[in-house]
Write a structure and sequence with these properties.
Elements (H helix, E strand, L loop, with lengths): L11 H13 L2 H13 L3 H25 L6 H9 L8
């Protein structure tokens, strides 16, 4: 049992697992087989494209918490960006 005052820390492998689970979800397990069945070898090109397009999102989601630490996650960043009443850092 974790002591209530002890703060746990997410390591890189935890963050990668959470990102893959939340962004890609079960599609990682099902979609490759379906894509290969329909498109054949051309499905590999689409997966390379997805990786290239997902990289900026992964980088952004990794850098935001480093710059603006908060337990609110994505909802905090959206509120921070669009709420005029919230004080912004310079």
């Amino acid at each position: 049992m974790v002591h209530p005052t002890t703060r746990s820390c997410l390591r890189l492998h935890h963050i990668v697992a959470l990102y893959v689970g939340s962004v890609l979800g079960c599609g990682v397990l099902i979609l490759p087989g379906l894509a290969a069945e329909i498109a054949g070898p051309a499905s590999l090109i689409s997966w390379i494209g997805i990786i290239v397009l997902a990289f900026p999102m992964a980088l952004t989601m990794g850098m935001l918490p480093a710059r603006f630490p908060n337990d609110g996650g994505v909802s905090y960043f959206v509120t921070y960006a669009f709420n005029e009443k919230m004080p912004h850092l310079s």
